[in-house]
Structures are given as structure tokens and as C-alpha cells.
Amino acid sequence: MVRRVIAFLLILLGIGLLAYPTVRNRYFDYRQQHLLALWDEYQAAKAKLPGSTSQEGVSRQAGQTNPSSDSASGKSSSEQQGSAVQFDPALEQYIFENMQGVLTIKKIDLKIPVLKEDTEENLNISVAHVAGTSGPGEVGNYVIAGHRMRAYGRHFNRLHEVTVGDEIVFTGPEGETYKYRVFEVLIVNPEDTWVLLPSGEEKLITLVTCDYSQKPSVRLVVRGKLVEEGEVYAGSD
């Protein structure tokens, strides 16, 4: 009887050990998708606030369809719709405390939260800003680190598909958007920290991940320059 119980427990332990990586990955994927859902909710709520570009467009349409309603109430359409918006300050605080923004690379179908600190837990959840480097759109080098991951499409798993001329887009919590054009893709050793450094007055973005195709592991680095306002973007396509 005791032997059967021990055997049963060993089987359960084995199943648990086999299932752990999958359960762990799903947990972190859930947290990442939850962050993106909160981000989209936050952006949608901001778009409905009076004074936002999207809200003004809606207000003009509403005013054209029923102008007498606005006059009778003594309020503009923007004011009426703004008063109905339920904006959650706690959501805004959570976004600002945890997320720096969202990174998008259409070439590899990537839309992923950029977390504020490159801690071990954050890098399990998503990609993160490397402490001590510049911010998005600033002079210097905005560095984002992420795990390569084994599963297709997770985190920076497909970063090796990005080539010179491709576009990298960063969107901040206030809706500010920075577009970068990739100018360099290279493989470096872990000790080659020069890729994290700024380059004069350039506004750079650098994406860093591991490359397991070589032993010992090296680093895959994708570097881009900010496309300034008014500059015509010419992609790789």
C-alpha cells in the first residue's frame, strides 16, 4: 500500500515537473496580454475625453446631425459626451507606474508592452527599458531588452527577421509616437556593452536579445534612428 502511494506521488511529481514550463509561460503570457488590454482600455478612454483629436471629430459629426439639441441644453457636444466618459484614475496610475509604452514592429507582427524596469520578472512578462539609457525620442540611445524565447512569436523570438530599413514604432501613454528606421543589425558578445552607449546627438533605439544559434550564447542587436517630423520614411519593402 505504501509503495503504491509513493509511486502515485512520484507520478504526480513527474507530471507537475513536465507541465511547469508550459503553465509558467501561459501565466506570463496572460500578464502580458492583460497589460495590453489595460493599455487599450486606457487609450480608448483618453480618446473620448473632451479636447482629444478623436473626440473633436465625433463632436463635429454629432453637432451636424442634431445641432438644436446642443443649443437647447446650453452645452457643446464635446461637453455632453465628456461628462458621460468614465475615466479611471487608478488605471492611469497603474499604466504610468508599470509601462513605459508599447513597441510595435509590423514586419514581425509584434505589439508588446515596454515595462519600466529590466528586472527578471518583467523580462519574463515582456520586454523592458534598460536602466541608465535614454528615453524614447530623446537624444541618446533608448535601449530595450527582451528574451528571445523558444516559442514562435513570443517576445523577441522573431527579432532576427528584422532587417535594415524596417520600421520600429514606440507609442507612449499620452499617445506620443516615435518612428525609428533600422540602420544596423549585428551580433555581439555579451561584454560588448558599447551598443548601449549614445552616439553624439543621434536619437537611437537599440533592441537587444540573446542569440542561441551560437555557443556560447551571443547577443542579437537591432539599432534604429528616429525618423524626425517632416522626414519622409522609406521602408525596406
Give a verbal description of the structure.
Helices cover 38% and strands 24% of the residues. Strand 5 and strand 6 form a beta hairpin. The protein has an eight-stranded mixed barrel with strand order 1-2-3-4-7-8-6-5. The radius of gyration is 23 Å and the shape is globular. The chain has six helices and eight strands; from the N terminus they run αααααββαββββββ. The chain starts with a helix and ends in an 11-residue tail after the last strand. The longest helix has 46 residues. It has a domain of 127 residues: Sortase, Chain: A (Beta Barrel), CATH 2.40.260. The protein has 237 residues and is an alpha+beta fold.
What's the structural blueprint in terms of helices and strands?
Layout: H1 2-47, H2 53-65, H3 67-73, H4 77-84, H5 89-98, E1 99-105, E2 110-115, H6 120-125, E3 127-129, E4 140-145, E5 167-171, E6 177-188, E7 203-211, E8 218-226
Parallel strand pairs: 2-3, 4-7
Antiparallel strand pairs: 1-2, 1-5, 3-4, 5-6, 6-8, 7-8
Helix pairs in contact: 2-3, 2-4
